[in-house]
Amino acid sequence: MSKKNRKKIEENSGSPTWYLSYGDMVTQLLCFFVLLFSMSTIDIAKLRKIVEYFRAKGGLESIMEGTKEIINENPPTEEIEKLKKVKKELEKKIKEMKIEDYVEVILEEKGLIIRFTEPILFDKGSADLKPKLFPLLKEIAFIVKNIPNNIRIEGYTCDLPINTPKYPSNWELSTARAINVAKFLINQKIQPPRIYVVGYGEFNPLYPNTNEENRRKNRRVDLIILNPNFKF
Q: How far apart are CA 99 and CA 12, in angstroms?
């Protein structure tokens, strides 16, 4: 048999030999990810998706990319979905009160942040709550009564120093602001053990304290309806 004929027979006899190495590598890769899942909490849906990727995708690069996307998926939890509903309720109330410029609702992993800036909640250098915001605080208290989430209240100031008999430093002022919000909620029948109070003073500003507008935004209180799955 000539070399030419022998070469034709080899070419028509089956798949190229490199397919075996490729197949072994893909199989080992699949076993590796199965092992990773077996050592953690197994999510059957994600595992099934990985297997489907291995079946459907032809290239190793595509398989790796698809598997990476699946593992990094972070679908909304049930708690986050609940907080999304609360966010919509509060945004509606804020719009009705026409205070969108001073109250912001932000959903983060740690929970739902209701952010009050100084003019709507306090006067400059003061920790006394303004009555204008009582309706919104009552709405928040009403919502919180019907859910088990704890509340974290964080007080902040700008960098302007304060030294009065009542507030010797920004720490005292920021803490007093957070405490007064907490007292309001407690008066609305929110159980005190559910509430945490923190005063940050002039630290952790949202914006550089380079002008009065930025300082106004930094003088704030964050009321956070906590996500119970988040660890500080």
A: 77
Q: Can you tell me the distance from the alpha carbon of 80 to that of 76, in angstroms, rounded to the nearest whole number?
A: 6
Of residues 176, 160, 150, the one with CA closest to residue 211: 160
Kindly report the three-state secondary structure assignment for every residue of the chain.
CCHHHHHHHHHHCCCCCHHHHHHHHHHHHHHHHHHHHHCCCCCHHHHHHHHHHHHHCCCHHHHHHHHHHHHCCCCCCHHHHHHHHHHHHHHHHHHHHCCCCCEEEEEECCEEEEEEEHHHHCCCCCCCCCHHHHHHHHHHHHHHHCCCCCEEEEECCCCCCCCCCCCCCHHHHHHHHHHHHHHHHHHCCCCHHHEEEEECCCCCCCCCCCCHHHHHHHCEEEEEEECCCCCC
What's the angle, vertex CA 158, arms to CA 156 and CA 159, rounded to 5? 125
User: At 39, which amino acid appears?
Assistant: M
Residue 111 · residue 230 · CB < 8 Å: yes
Contact 85, 109 (CB under 8 A): no
By DSSP bridging, strand 195-199 and strand 151-155 are parallel
Question: 63-120, pLDDT tens digit by residue?
Answer: 445 544 444 445 567 889 999 999 999 999 999 999 999 999 999 999 999 999 988 9
> For the whole model, what pTM was predicted?
0.68
And the tokens for 216?
């106004």
